[in-house]
Amino acid sequence: MNLILQGAASGRATIERLAALAQARSITAIGIAAEPCAWRCDEALRSEATVAALDAACQAERIDYAFVMPNQRLSDFKLLAMDMDSTLITIECIDEIADMQGLKPQVAEITEAAMRGEIEFRESLARRVALLNGLDATALQRVYDERLKLSPGAEAMLAAAQAAGLKTLLVSGGFTFFTDRIKLRLGLDYTHANRLEINDGKLTGRVSGAIVDAEEKKNTVLRVCREIGASPAQTIVMGDGANDLAMMGVAGLSVAFRAKPVVRAQADVALNFVGLDGILNLFD
């Protein structure tokens, strides 16, 4: 397999040492940066011992690694599906909404537990949304305007995926208020998320309609695959929390982005240090 190493401060000597752990035959700088920050190590040997050694060494050097099949192209895939909160964007929207109510610590604690898989998502969502009861709905626009930022590399990743012919799906346990606006902003093809109930300009503390939980996320990926005539093996799915594992499990390539340990352990690729556009270096 090819071993891809990438990180902002990955000097040649460090890369050679890491490549030697996998007995790679040769090393080639890849990407378009003036200073190489990504390297392809050809004919690397993947084993449990190699992975364990690379895990420790790359973590220490703040370098991401991935074993990939040679000659794989981005255009081999037909769908890029992404989680929203803490994946495509840097924030957890519900935590920031709660901050407008003075309740961010309480909500963030529940969010973190759910992302680690310690609380079932439906329960965690209900508990968090209930705390927003009575909040003026204008808080949603304030969060979007003042706090919502795209993750590093998001626009470059999406531009490359769209140029390669992939359809794009944003599927979130968050809220349509944000996914609808991001869809327009980034030219995404599909979105699916929860809808906050609003009455007389105030949040009611409830979600209207079906809950977008882990199973619904997976079913959404499969539904969009059917609509575009793609197999799940032709999908790239990106996420960071336990609620993303089901949809990542049906993907041809699953990518954990700045993810919880339970997610990193089950993903094909983990990007812990580079931006979302780091996935582009995985392809020829």
UniProtKB/TrEMBL annotation:
InterPro entries in alphabetical order: HAD-like_SerB, HAD-like_sf, HAD_sf, PSP
Enzyme class: hydrolase
SUPFAM superfamilies: HAD-like
GO-annotated biological processes: L-serine biosynthetic process
EC number: 3.1.3.3
Domain of life: Bacteria
Catalytic activity, as annotated: O-phospho-L-serine + H2O = L-serine + phosphate; O-phospho-D-serine + H2O = D-serine + phosphate
Pathway: Amino-acid biosynthesis; L-serine biosynthesis; L-serine from 3-phospho-D-glycerate: step 3/3
Cofactor requirements of the protein: Mg(2+)
GO CC annotation terms, alphabetical: cytoplasm
Family per record: Belongs to the HAD-like hydrolase superfamily. SerB family.
Designated name of the protein: Phosphoserine phosphatase
Lineage: Bacteria, Pseudomonadati, Pseudomonadota, Betaproteobacteria, Burkholderiales
